[in-house]
Design a protein that fits this description.
Layout (H helix, E strand, L loop, with lengths): L6 E6 L6 H10 L3 E5 L2 E5 L4 E4 L4 E6 L3 H23 L3 E4 L5 E4 L5
Antiparallel strand pairs: 1-5, 2-3, 3-4, 4-5, 6-7
Helix pairs in contact: 1-2
């Protein structure tokens, strides 16, 4: 595919339960984030997208854009897990196999 052509893909993230976690996930992936009401615009120089209030994501960019959907879903899930652990004083750690492990320092 020539570099001047773009692809567009729509993905459903489901109900967005935490806008702060979504913003953190997108920023961790290197996207800049801009909100307009319930709509989130995010992007880099080559790729970007829009997340609507119903959880649908429209990704636009080069041929690698299709690879972004599962990466965004995983990053959002990770931020939700981190936020849940933080509420109870737990830290999170990603293992070598990609699993999330909760940790808490006892006696502190």
């Amino acid at each position: 595919m020539p570099c001047y052509r773009t692809t567009e893909l729509t993905v459903d993230l489901g109900a967005i339960t935490s806008t702060a976690s979504l913003d953190a996930a997108l920023k961790a992936l290197g996207y800049s984030v801009h909100r307009e009401g319930d709509v989130v615009h995010f992007g880099t120089r080559l790729n970007g997208g829009v997340i609507n209030s119903d959880g649908t994501v429209t990704l636009r960019g080069n041929a690698t854009t299709a690879l972004s959907a599962p990466i965004i879903k995983r990053a959002y899930s990770l931020e939700l897990v981190k936020a849940a652990g933080k509420r109870f004083g737990w830290g999170t750690k990603i293992t070598k196999t990609g699993k999330i492990r909760y940790e808490k320092a006892w006696g502190r």
